[in-house]
Amino acid sequence: MDQQGLGDPEGNDRRVRAWASVRAAAWSAWSASRTSVSIVPADLVTFYNSIGEVTWADVGNGYFVDPAADVLLRFKQYGTVDVGADQTDGGLVIGSNGGGLSYVVGPGGVIYRTRTASLDEPELDQVADDLWQFLELLERSLTRFVANGEPGCL
Length: 154
What we know:
Blueprint: E1 2-7, E2 15-24, H1 27-33, H2 42-50, E3 51-56, E4 63-65, H3 68-78, E5 81-83, E6 89-96, E7 102-105, E8 111-114, E9 124-128, H4 131-148
């Protein structure tokens, strides 16, 4: 876990800590299950082949990309989330913003964020065209937080 302490923008003695944690992939859990889940976009498979999870708990409410095992367990327990323009495609919950909103990836790779904490009949906003754009937005949020303490809008 990397830790960086920074002074606030006004130069006060208060310190802001940004914790960035990227854990090694749980390769065996993901690779053993990925063939049974045909709705998993290819870039998510690539992500989980290299990175197990992303946890930035101290950036705003936090930003989390869950480990593959948690994503698959949630899928097995609760199924998919209705996504897409007509909400007929099934998406996977892959993380959250720590404030009750979830990130959902559709079968085409588009990333959505829920408007409320409920996944029963979710209202969704598209936040990224694909996982890589989503990760870039997360990186910008971390950079903004380190620079001025603002966590961004994700």
